[in-house]
Amino acid sequence: MSKQLRSRLLALLVSMALFSGLFFTSTSAQRTAGVQQNPVASRSARNSAVAAATEAVLRETSVIRQLSIIRPVQSGLLSRAEIERSIIRNLDEDMSPAEAHANEVTLKKLGLAPADFQYRPLLIKVLTEQVAGYYDPRSRQFYLADWIDLDGQKPIMAHELTHALQDQHFDLRRFEHWPKGDSDAELAAHALIEGDATLLMMLYVANNPMRALAFLKSLGGMEISSAELDKAPRALRETLLFPYQSGYEWTRDLYKKGGWGQVSKAFNDLPQSTEQILHPEKYFAHEAPMKVSLPDVAGLINAAASEIRGQRSEVSRRSRSSLQPPASSLWKRLDYDVEGEWGFYLILDQFLKSPSESHRAAAGWGGDRYEVYEGPKGEVMFVSLSAWDTENDAREFFEAYARRTSLRYVNAERIDAQSSIRDRQPDQNSNTQALSDIRGFRTSEGSVVLERHGARVLVVEGCPEGIDCRSLMNSLWHR
Fold it and tell me: Which of 73, 205, 373, 393 is at 20 to 30 A from 136, Cα to Cα?
């Protein structure tokens, strides 16, 4: 996928709408119920009630989670307009226009979003719709939407106040500025943060079953809508949910193994990949992802494009240096990052539409690196080099990606890509001379070439017309 989501966006997603949406919002009555009116008191009185409830829920949460309260947590109410302004402010601070553009371009290129998809506006709509409260590590305050029925939403308060305890003991702000280019590990870290809080929420409800009834009653009296979330591209929607769903299952496994002490320990021994979240045994075995690198080939593409322009202008004998195009006509690298097992699963299943097959093909992931390039006319090229645990894992992914490609591009035409195979060095992860598989397609968005060499798979998707994709892939293999 694209750079999945920066830490502040994930922190802003309250579990109420996401978690309860999974289980409680299927009926049309709940979706269309009007906002429950609260005629009791002024906003000041409501703030006082929220403060009292925050103190009480924090005390119980502290006991359940076995984390002491180091300092009180301030709380307050926010209107929907105030929540939207907070979301926009945090987006402006944590996501540059270039990052938003890169995310949008990548999702479209991989067929994970429609051509008219606009990344930032959709995020604002989804988050404004879904957020009903959140803990802010910057202000160290808990905020609850002012339309929420307080008694019924105490499980949600327990979830968010778990974040306050996490912050006091493990410093959540250290997750705000994740190193660029490893968002798969970032998503795994947020699966710990949200999985921890979701597990606590379940135990909080289990302490008093009447809370579940109050929660359901509260939802029935609120205006619950998931229209914007439902309209979001599947890859984005499921990635937003990943820390809550998969994170809960992973944290539950940690809890079963060693109680809250094991969960707390994970904040100092972070999961390193979504693979470790999907396969907890790999976390316990400390199976770290392999580091994979790719060169920035924008210069190579621009040089080749210059030669083509020169040939068309009948000046093919001029030196390459004199054929440099103006900056406005250059290809440039928009993004580089890690897909991870979760990202590859989404890419495959968007078109294979067989979760079991897609999960199987993405399993055995060992590491990867991808890059996205944008051309002067809006052309986009996606490059990915992935390492797999075994040659069989690599072969299975290769075949699944080839099937996905033929489905992704309706008029894809198979081409003879055999000539792109060059003498390779033996695969570093194999004791024998590695064999190669090659597959090529011509599409309306450039050519797609896949090559497997031993336990590694290289994908170039959207190779521009006139560019020697064979030479490009050779340079990527022999970087």
Answer: 205
Which of 284, 316, 345 finishes a domain?
A: 284
The answer to whether the Cα torsion of 308, 412, 387, 279 is positive or negative is: positive
User: Which tens digits make up the pLDDT trace of 319-345?
Assistant: 444 445 455 569 999 999 999 999 999
Helical packing angle, 355-362 and 391-408, nearest 10°: 130
Regarding whether 274 and 346 lie in a shared domain, the answer is no
pLDDT, position 327: 54
The predicted pLDDT at position 117 comes to 94
Q: Residue 226: which pLDDT band, with cuts at 50, 70 and 90?
A: confident
The two structure tokens encoding residue 200: 């606590």
Number of separate domains in the chain = 2
**Separation CA 473–CA 267 (nearest Å):** 40
Determine contact, residues 167/136, Cβ cutoff 8 Å: no
pTM comes to 0.86
**119 and 208 co-located in one domain:** yes
Q: Are residues 262 and 351 in the same domain?
A: no
Confidence of residue 263 (pLDDT cuts 50, 70, 90): very high
Q: Is residue 33 part of a domain?
A: yes
| Residues 222 and 345 grouped into a single domain | no
Token pair of 40 as six digits:
């009791």
Amino acid at 374: E
